[in-house]
């Protein structure tokens, strides 16, 4: 966080065409301290940050903008998705959550779904938002509302997920697909 904060202060200082000495003097701190702050070497006090933001004529929160912008990143190494117990788990569907975002008005839930060889059909899923499916392996007849789509490797399906949906008929082979559910966070 200190590095992101320092980079943001440096960026705003340069936008105002101020030298390190100019900003440090006006903020009542030493050149060395400002240099350490900009290089992420120290964690400045709140009063120091208030002085800096006052001189730069920006809200204190804007000094943290670049840190906040980078916060919502979710990295999941191959095979390390969190296995989630959801409706459908009981009938041989395995859900691995591949990431999540913590902020914002929109929730995004990417899942790797594996339908085991003994998986049963389950076409009564319903939830708010939209869902995107991308077939990775195998094949499935996937129902959305009154329509049934035969999906094979490489096929994609995007739909309103408030209609009943789910795998209707499966083959004997294991099937996997990427499912991304997107919905307004207030409804989540």
Overview of this protein structure:
With 188 residues, the protein is an alpha+beta fold. The protein has 2 domains: 2-69, Orthogonal Bundle (434 Repressor (Amino-terminal Domain)); 82-187, Jelly Rolls, CATH 2.60.120.10. It has 5 helices and 9 strands; from the N terminus they run H-H-H-H-H-E-E-E-E-E-E-E-E-E. It has helices spanning 2-15, 20-27, 31-38, 46-56, 65-69; strands at residues 82-84, 93-97, 106-115, 130-137, 139-144, 147-152, 156-160, 165-170, 175-184. Strands 1-2-3-9-4-7 form a 6-stranded antiparallel sheet, with no helix packed on it. It has a 3-stranded antiparallel sheet with strand order 6-5-8, with no helix packed on it. A hairpin with an 8-residue loop joins strand 1 and strand 2. The two termini are 29 Å apart. The relative contact order is 0.14. Residues 9-63 form the HTH cro/C1-type domain. Keywords: DNA-binding. It comes from Sphingomonas oligophenolica. This is Helix-turn-helix domain-containing protein. It holds the Pfam family HTH_3.
In short:
This protein has 188 residues and is α+β, with helices and mostly antiparallel strands. The chain is built from 5 helices and 9 strands; from the N terminus they run αααααβββββββββ.
What is the N-to-C succession of helices and strands?
Answer: HHHHHEEEEEEEEE
The DSSP helix count reads: 5
Q: What's the CATH architecture of the largest domain?
A: Sandwich
Helix content percent band: 10-25%
Low-confidence stretches: none
What is the total domain count?
Answer: 2
Kindly report the average pLDDT value: 84
Instruction: Assign the CATH class of the largest domain.
Output: Mainly Beta
Looking at CATH, the homologous superfamily of the largest domain is Jelly Rolls
Strand line-up across the major sheet: 1-2-3-9-4-7
Oligomer: single chain
Supply the helix-strand structural class.
alpha+beta
Number of strands: 9
CATH topology of the largest domain: Jelly Rolls
């Amino acid at each position: 966080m200190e590095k992101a904060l320092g980079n943001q202060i440096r960026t705003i200082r340069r936008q105002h065409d101020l030298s390190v000495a100019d900003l440090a003097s006006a903020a009542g701190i030493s050149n060395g301290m400002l240099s350490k702050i900009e290089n992420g070497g120290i964690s400045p006090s709140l009063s120091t940050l208030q002085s800096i933001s006052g001189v730069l004529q920006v809200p204190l929160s804007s000094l943290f903008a670049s840190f906040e912008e980078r916060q919502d990143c979710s990295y999941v190494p191959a095979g390390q998705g969190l296995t989630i117990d959801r409706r459908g788990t009981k009938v041989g569907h395995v859900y691995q959550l591949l990431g999540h975002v913590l902020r914002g008005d929109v929730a995004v839930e990417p899942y790797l779904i594996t339908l085991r060889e003994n998986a049963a059909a389950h076409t009564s899923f319903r939830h708010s938002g939209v869902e995107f499916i991308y077939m990775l392996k195998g094949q499935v007849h996937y129902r959305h509302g009154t329509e049934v789509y035969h999906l094979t490797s490489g096929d994609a399906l995007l739909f309103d997920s408030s209609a009943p949906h789910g795998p209707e008929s499966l083959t004997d082979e294991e099937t996997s697909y990427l499912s991304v559910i997107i919905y307004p966070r207030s409804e989540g």
